[in-house]
Amino acid sequence: MDRYKEIIPDFEKFKEVVKTHQPFDCRVNSLKTSVEEVKQHFKDEGITFEQRDWNKNFLKLDKRPGKTYAHWLGKVYVQESTSAVPPLAFDFSKKDVEKTKVLDMCAAPGSKTTQISGIMENKGEITANDVKSQRTRSLLANIYRLGCLNVKVTEQDARDIKENGGSKKYDKVLVDVPCTAEGNLREKDYLKKGVQVKDSKNMSELQRQILEKAFKLCKKGGEVVYSTCTFSPEENEMVVKDFLDKGMLENPGFSFPHSKGITEWNGQTFSEELRKTVRVYPHQIDSGGIFVAKFTKL
Ligand SMILES: C[S@@+](CC[C@H](N)C(=O)[O-])C[C@H]1O[C@@H](n2cnc3c(N)ncnc32)[C@H](O)[C@@H]1O
């Protein structure tokens, strides 16, 4: 991780925090219940929890909630709290939600699809796609368990999604790409050293291709949100910088602790626009790591 010491703020604290176990987090499923009801479920089952201050829909638990009634009944979804950041970049306030079409290009196992379904209150239409059939099964199971009625699932390589002459253009496209996942380092020891730059560079080719397709599938003036759970600039700013002619970067205006995207890396300088992207590190909200870039399609 030392290659990031110049870009990660309070690097000593970062190093300390990533040695610690990541809290078990769950998101309350607003389609089925309320935070107060879930708190009562957990009290009844002897589970200690703390409500996250940056996102009141998240409860930090002392153990995994997978075997609780609240989970079985689809009232909670096990999701690390940083994973909830990308969907929050979309603006659902201006548009008529009933008419809104969302595409989640790499959706399994459905953390963000089900979260967006909740934000849309089961209105409008979400197409949740993933290429891997085993993961698509988990996606379907989660959609069913959480009672998401506005989601349909497709299974194909995101790069092959048909454009159908523009008739299928989406208002919002989530591009939560496969990545080297360094942000999961609190849970996976092999990630603690950081990944090889060559692996990041290899991964970035697929990421670029999927993001390219996202712009083709999004309506003009629509929103494209690109996210990874890695720190590597090769998969983050260096991918996003290649699309500044296709979309205008927007700062999502998050009020919780986070950092801005970087504009210099390994002797290369990027557009100042990249400061509108968002980096969240494990020590900032006591979770994992995530990168988010929000574009308005030109
Ligand atoms: C970071 S995970 C997505 C997590 C998911 N968005 C969520 O929040 O639960 C990346 C996903 O991309 C899928 N994937 C990998 N290559 C793909 C491709 N070419 N087209 C579509 N999905 C792909 C993987 O199967 C994996 O499920």
Brief descriptors of the model:
single chain; 298 residues; alpha/beta; Rossmann fold; Alpha-Beta Plaits; nine-stranded mixed sheet; four-stranded antiparallel sheet; globular; binds S-adenosylmethionine
Describe the model.
By secondary structure, this protein is of the alpha/beta class. It has 2 domains: about 1-20 and about 80-295, 3-Layer(aba) Sandwich (Rossmann fold), CATH 3.40.50.150; about 25-80, Sun protein, domain 3 (Alpha-Beta Plaits, 2-Layer Sandwich), CATH 3.30.70.1170. The chain is built from 9 helices and 15 strands. It has helices at about 10-20, 35-45, 70, 85-90, 110-120, 135-145, 195-215, 235-240, 280-285, and strands at about 25-30, 50, 60, 75-80, 100-105, 125-130, 150-155, 170-175, 220-230, 245-250, 260, 265, 270, 280, 290-295. The strands form 3 sheets. Strands 5, 6, 7, 8, 9, 10, 11, 14 and 15 form a 9-stranded mixed β-sheet that branches. Strands 2-3-1-4 form a 4-stranded antiparallel β-sheet. Strands 12-13 form a two-stranded antiparallel sheet. The protein is globular, with a radius of gyration of 19 Å. S-adenosylmethionine binds near residues 157, 176 and 178.
What is the number of beta strands? 15
- Tally of individual helices: 9
Which of globular, elongated, flat, extended, rod-shaped describes the shape? globular
Overall tally of structural domains: 2
CATH superfamily of the largest domain: Vaccinia Virus protein VP39
Give the SSE string: HEHEEHEHEHEHEEHEHEEEEEHE
Radius of gyration: 19 Å
What is the level 1 CATH name of the largest domain?
Answer: Alpha Beta
